[in-house]
Design brief:
By secondary structure, the chain is an alpha/beta fold. It has helices at about 5-20, 35-45, 65-70, 75-85, 95-100, 115-120, 125-140, 150-165, 195-200, 200-210, 220-230; strands spanning about 1-5, 25-30, 50-55, 90, 145, 170-175, 235-245, 260-270, 270-280. It contains eleven helices and nine strands. The chain has a six-stranded parallel sheet with strand order 1-4-3-2-5-6, sandwiched between helices. A three-stranded antiparallel sheet has the order 7-8-9, covered by helices on one side. It starts with a strand and ends in a 5-residue tail after the last strand. Bound molecules: adenosine monophosphate. Adenosine monophosphate binds near residues 36, 149, 176 and 183. Adenosine monophosphate binds near residues 30, 37, 147, 173 and 183.
Length: about 280
């Protein structure tokens, strides 16, 4: 696996692959890699000729400086995992390489970037769009692979792709979970064993909520999930919303959308965890 540090090196690598007519699958990450990330690499390896991964903790998407500071960084282990998974190259830029000057661009993609995570983490998705658009510009991938764990992020990236008229195909990949049901996340490294067990209640309650769709309206189900989780110390629901999976608009009634998703953010002490579940076609 090639380890690339500069934009120039990536462009040369991509050019050489293109000259051999290879298709390029791209997986952008912030490192501290786990099986969730590796599932995206596997998809890229299976669907494209070569897979290129970036590992970059993007400062512009952190609205909380403490979160940026404490974000786990495990570069050596990351490279070993990527090599084993069959990635052909990894791009490890510095902040200076990605942002030689302040990025002042904003992307007008509408409500998908303003609700839920957009409301609770102001500027987060603008930062995500800054870095992903720069990476797309450098790599020019045929396909880019994103995890449904960050459900809203996929909607935002698709909206950005439409806005900028980019040719890359955005591929959404299913959430990888621990046996307990807890969605794998780099932030799980910050949980104690006990907290990790408690955090598995998030998925348990979401799964249970699927069974109540017939009995409760969306707003009632939101209340039920929130109350069930808030009963469990030290979980604290930041938000739970049941939305149209395409527009991300909150629903009053199940009949308002064909594809419906419940999106949640829960604090387990200091650690912010996100998850989501589908309510489509379960009746
Ligand atoms: P991150 O490093 O957290 O920015 O994540 C990089 C990519 O991996 C994003 O597209 C995430 O949605 C995806 N990802 C993270 N955790 C998981 C998971 N448990 N299952 C599937 N994809 C994931």
């Amino acid at each position: 696996m090639k380890v690339l540090h500069s934009i120039q090196e990536v462009k040369e690598f991509v050019r050489s692959q293109r000259s051999e007519n290879k298709t390029i699958g791209f997986v952008p990450t912030m490192g501290a890699l786990h099986e969730g990330h590796i599932s995206l690499v596997n998809q890229a390896v299976n669907h494209c000729d070569i897979c290129l991964v970036s590992v970059f903790v993007n400062p512009t998407q952190f609205n909380d400086p403490k979160d940026l500071e404490t974000y786990p960084r495990t570069l050596d282990a990351d490279c070993k995992l990527l090599d084993k998974a069959g990635a052909k190259a990894v791009f490890l830029p510095t902040v200076e390489e990605m942002y030689p000057e302040e990025d002042k661009r904003t992307f007008e993609v509408g409500a998908v970037a303003e609700v839920m995570e957009g409301a609770y983490r102001p500027g987060h998705f603008q930062g995500v769009m800054q870095v992903v658009s720069k990476l797309f510009d450098i790599v020019e991938p045929d396909k880019a692979f994103f995890g449904e764990k960050d459900f809203q992020q996929i909607a935002v990236i698709k909206a950005m792709q439409k806005l900028l008229k980019l040719e890359v195909e955005i591929v959404a990949c299913p959430i990888v979970r621990e046996a307990s049901g807890l969605a794998l996340s780099s932030r799980n490294q910050r949980l104690t064993e006990e907290e990790r067990t408690i955090a598995s209640n998030i998925y348990r309650v979401l799964k249970e909520s699927q069974k109540l769709v017939g009995a409760k309206k969306p707003k009632e189900l939101v209340q039920w999930v929130t109350e069930e989780l808030n009963k469990i110390e030290p979980l604290k629901v930041e938000y739970f919303e049941i939305v149209n999976a395409e527009s991300l608009a909150s629903l009053e009634d199940w009949s308002e959308a064909k594809h419906i998703q419940g999106c949640i953010t829960v604090y387990c002490n200091e650690v912010r965890l996100i998850d989501n579940i589908s309510y489509s076609n379960i009746n």
